[in-house]
Amino acid sequence: MTYPTGDNPTFLVPCAGDFNNDGRSEIVVAYDDIDNVDVLVAYDAGSFVMQTIHSTGRAPICVAVGDFDNDTRLDIVIANYYDDTISVLLGYGNGSFANQKTYRTGSYPQFVAISDFNNDTRLDIVVANQLDNTVSILLGYGNGFFADQMTYPTGDNPKFVAMGDFNNDTRLDIVVSNGNNNTVSILLGYGNGSFTNQTTYSTGSNPSSVAVGDFNNDTRSDIVVANTNNNTVSVLLGYGNGSFTNQMTYSTGSNPSSVGVGDFDNDTRLDIVVANVDDNTVSILLGYGNGSFTNQTIYSTGENPLSVVVGDFNNDTRLDIVVANYFSNTVSILLGYGNGSFAIQTTYPSGPFPNSVAYGDFNNDIRLDIVVVNWLGNTARVLLGYHNQVFEKKMTLITGNGSRPISFAIGDFNNDSHIDIAVANSGTNNVGIFLGHGNYSFANQMTFSTDSTPISVAIGDFNRDTMLDIVVANHGNSNVGIFLGCGNGSFLNQSTFTTGSKSQPYGIAVGDFNNDTLVNIATLLG
């Protein structure tokens, strides 16, 4: 089954999680060329509905999912390739997310993953930096914020990162695929967030993706690597002391770009799935449980599949596959039969050039949802899952000709317990308000004038009257505008506050930064 993404889905790495707390996995896909990520929400039959869109940095290339602020609601982290940043979007538990917070990485971050590297029960982030030949570690504080990066050298062109305990010391280690060295790097963890120097092992040509699993049932972590130029995967069996055997290789389709693992035939032996970019297929290699695998079986996908993830999207206890199709602007869902075979794909639209996908329950309805990042749109899109596990685009909100909507925030502006939307329309110099009916539909847009080029919007109760207000960063006038809410969905004319001559604010956040119970405003200045 295929699901449309945006035009030209770029990378590679899908991610998944339950974003709406319905027990079903949603998918997140990254699109580089549209600067967005898509979230696809799951219905019980393995289908999804479109879609909320969230701004990211430039060229979002990879996405991962986890609970960064320990509120039991899933959050998203995105690698922004051209900005040398990651974006963290905290989830509200209803399928929507707060505006991004960004953190610096190395140069050209092209992969992001999460785990707890210092054993403090708080999620941390690891990033592969292509141009620096490093990985960045950002330790989490457990409140949605992260420490500045620490970097560790890798091989040339680190493409992908996976985690496992390779030396059986109960501390997480890292494996990195090095595209230009034809190697993987092993960095053993000390359990305090720091790592040893790398040890390298040979792979095939241009390794692009790596995954970890126990392929020979010896309780030791093994590695599988997708070799783009060889049309193979390499399997390196672990000795349990941090070292590995020489590779064994298995044939795949043409240009394998992404690899995942799971038990697809319910025999307690791990199997492998590979996305083949040039063939528009995925390969399934069933495991014998001794470290070897069957010849591949092929299933069709959309055009240019760059990223694959594994999860149970229709709640039948059988593993399914989700693929981001870069040139089809779709994601494909292939439902598993539990015997190692899969149904024909169902496709759902994503944003342009979806290059990474993930899943989770973003709205706490026990159905898995999907998040996709769009390379060309600088956005992330969320597709929520339905009870029949089908995804669909639910609505399109019209912001007007030339409006160029660039940021949005959500809240209940008229106190009817239905979620409303505020949009910063940078092309028409206004804020658009869409009042929600509570049934996935919204009233037509009401607009309130801003100053020049409103580029970011946030909400909070700034005058302590229990009614939500709006703050906008006016990039062109170097100020912020405050719209006090009337509690009925309308707002007073803006009051402006300067951010400094030619400061050109481009981001805004709201919170109690000095613990005085009053809401404060923070701006990012150009």
From TrEMBL:
The secretion signal range is none
Q: Which SMART domains match?
A: ANK (SM00248)
Keywords associated with the record: Signal
Domain of life of the organism encoding this protein: Eukaryota
The record, for InterPro entries, names: Ankyrin_rpt (IPR002110), FG-GAP (IPR013517), Integrin_alpha_N (IPR028994)
| Transmembrane intervals | none
- State what protein this is by name: VCBS repeat-containing protein
